[in-house]
Amino acid sequence: MSQDLRLSILSPERRLVESISVDEVTLTGSEGQIQILPGHAPMIGTLRTGVFRFRSKGQEPVLGVISTGFFRVSGAEVQVMAETVELRSEIDVNRAKRAQKLAEETLQAADLDGHRFNKYQLKLQRSLIRQQVAGHEFQ
Known about the structure:
The termini are far apart. This protein folds into 2 domains: about 5-90, F0F1 ATP synthase delta/epsilon subunit, N-terminal (ATP Synthase, domain 1, Sandwich), CATH 2.60.15.10; about 95-135. The protein has helices at about 95-105, 115-135, and strands at about 5-10, 15-20, 25-30, 30-35, 45, 50-55, 60-65, 70-75, 75-80, 85. β6 (about 50-55) and β7 (about 60-65) form a beta hairpin. The protein is of the alpha+beta class and about 140 residues long. The strands form 2 sheets. The chain has a 5-stranded mixed sheet, with no helix packed on it. It has a 5-stranded antiparallel sheet with strand order 4-3-6-7-10, covered by helices on one side.
């Protein structure tokens, strides 16, 4: 069993990491949180908005927020393709709080159609997760 795991995290706007060596990867999949370690069985899964984390040998864990997409584990490779990826250090907490407020206000409107309701539910969820990852309490 190989002790080396290679991670790539991509979005349409950027390549966060490409084929870096890591000890572990944690993602939020459609079925809940999944931890991938060296020797993991091959699989493909979908992502939902949530926290991601990876750690390279001897390094502090890297933490961030990832949105919908998918991941693939094949051999010693983990590939993550997501709509958006944001590192903890990149999170603008004030912006996330404003997005939370706007989403909550919009969700209270009685005239929302199903599409807009789902859209603002996801915006609210993303803003709360961003605040959590940045290390701030929910308001």
